[in-house]
Amino acid sequence: MLALDRWLSADNISLMLSTDNRAELGRILTDIGCYLDDNPPALSLPPSAYTSPELWQLERERIFNRSWMLVAHVDQLAETGDYVAVSIAGERVMVVRGGDGELRAISPICRHRMMPLVETGAGRTDTLTCQYHMWRYGLDGRLRGAPHMAANKDFNPRDCRLPQFAVATWNGLVWVNLDADAEAIGAHLDLANDEFASYRLAEMVQVESWSHEWRANWKLASENGHENYHVLGLHRQTLEPLVPGGGDLDVRQYSPWALRIRVPFTFPLDVKSLQLNEVQKSNLSVLWTFPNSALAAAGERVVWFGFIPLSIDRVQVLGGVLTTPELAADSAATAQTAQFVTAMINDEDRLGLEGVQVGAGSRFAERGHLSPKEQPGMLAFYRNLAEALGGDQTGSG
Ligand code: FES
Ligand SMILES: [Fe+2]
Prior knowledge:
The protein has two domains: about 70-170, Rieske Iron-sulfur Protein; about 185-385, Naphthalene 1,2-dioxygenase Alpha Subunit, Chain A, domain 1, CATH 3.90.380. The protein is about 25% helix and about 25% strand. The protein has helices at about 5-10, 20-35, 55-65, 185-190, 195, 220-225, 280, 325-330, 330-345, 350-360, 375-390; strands spanning about 70-75, 80-90, 90-95, 105, 120-125, 130, 135, 145, 165-170, 175, 205-215, 250-255, 260-265, 285-290, 295-300, 300-310, 315-325. InterPro entries: Rieske_2Fe-2S, Rieske_2Fe-2S_sf, Ring_hydroxy_dOase_asu_C_dom, Rng_hydr_dOase-A. This is Anthranilate 1,2-dioxygenase large subunit.
């Protein structure tokens, strides 16, 4: 276990906390630190991990300011001016295709007096015009025009540019990182190439995408995606016949940032447009990127998810469904894809996790014992969480 002193030493943490709050955060971090032990406790996180403002601040600083997050598929950003704008733990980020063909992740906060230049969401635009006083920026973030500013000799419009974050594409999926100097995420995801290359992800087309909001802490969404045990309950009518909740997970951690989970199907899939081996046909293969992004390959159909934290108890769920060009052109397969989409993006997880968030606020809530069916994935997530909060995770910028 990491020494508490190190987690909370004055120069190691920039939060100003009261003694009580510091003690509470210390208790949570002590519990989380135990997941680094060789024999971690088979317990869920303490309830306060989902409600503590102090832990949320620490997560913003240690995790969301320096982690890669999946926010789009390139099909959503194909044309000049196509953009996706998100709010990552309170920080606005806009990923936009420039006139030069480059994808950029920029801070869409006006350099004049801080007005956001776009709402969160997706769209297409040719310039970014601030509605407050009409300063205008190009898609590369450079200032193009600012009314009545020429007489201000201290202001040089050529120096005025929106800050940039890191952006990367991996097999058609678009990732952002608030740390502009972050190490490339591709180096970690490429460790999964042996298992995922035959899905031909880079050639897949996106046939569906969505953005929902759940009233739950982001960790509940990530945990939920690291186990399949809940299919017994939340998805007993929809997913249980295909990926039973009683199946045993096979978890492989490639690096602190990348992890694969195999979830057995009830029967092997009939795959027409890909050359998959028996293991791939017989398992849902999920590639997780810590802390909050995943893609789940079910034969010729792949779903991606980004669970973007909005606040301590709200998460934006971004996602899309990809398939091979052959399948996308096949009308019978399209009907099956639609069924698959409906099953994957049903409201069942939202209802479940919003309930758990309410439960985490109960004075009587306690840590729960984990089933062996859920332990492999959840304990891996908790260990990565402990490493990230402890500042131990290698591979960050
Ligand atoms: S805040 Fe944007 S133009 Fe004034
Ligand atoms: Fe689920």
